[in-house]
Amino acid sequence: MVNYKLIYFDGRGAGECARQIFALAEQPYEDVRLTKETFAPLKATFPFGQVPVLEVDGQALAQSMAICRFLARKFGFAGKDDFESALIDSLGDQYTDYRAEMKTFYYTALGFMTGDLDKLKTEVLLPAREKFLGFVTKFLKKNAASGYLVGDKISWVDVLVAEHVSDMINRVPEYLEGFPEVEAHMKKVRANPQLKKWIETRPETAF
Q: Where is the GST N-terminal domain (predicted)?
């Protein structure tokens, strides 16, 4: 039996998509949650000096997107063929671009950076949201028969996007205004029985 250990901070953040893939697969794993104090002495032992890190029978894999792709392919949430898998990956890469574009707003909202949050919302977040959710909407309209972003089965990028959207509407209530397809997608994904159970029982954290 393979032993999985996911190491991240005590928050959802970049570790949550992997946790939700484990939940979808109903796969046991060790959910290690670090504090700043417990992270410091371990930092040098991680492949890139950061978390999340997934240990698979003691072998370490870093970078959140690589971890998600690995787990999704392992458990069957990466598309039914190579092309679907590539489409899913492309959405994941576009999400990474979007997160870089809206980073200053998000980190300021969390208190990790200082700045004028209202100005950052107008000048940084909303333009990035408009572009990214526009792309997401195109995929959802093209794949309307299933309600998922790609193919006829939930994938890791559905989980990634739905979790982020849910987080953002709690921080910016108008985040989904004008994007009904994205809202419907979020609700569909989070209604999955395995995900619903995890979301209802996971630890309450600030991010």
A: 2-79
| CATH code, domain carrying 36 | 3.40.30.10
Copy the structure tokens of residue 165: 């959207």
Neighbour-count burial for 153-166, b at 16+ CB within 10 Å, e otherwise: ebbbbbbbbbbbbb
For the chain, how many structural domains are there in total?
A: 2
Same domain, 105 and 172: yes
Quick one: 97 and 172 in the same domain? yes
52 located within any domain:
yes
Residue 103, token pair as written in the block: 């980073």
- Residue entry with tokens 């994904």: 189
What local confidence, expressed as pLDDT, does residue 154 receive? Answer: 98
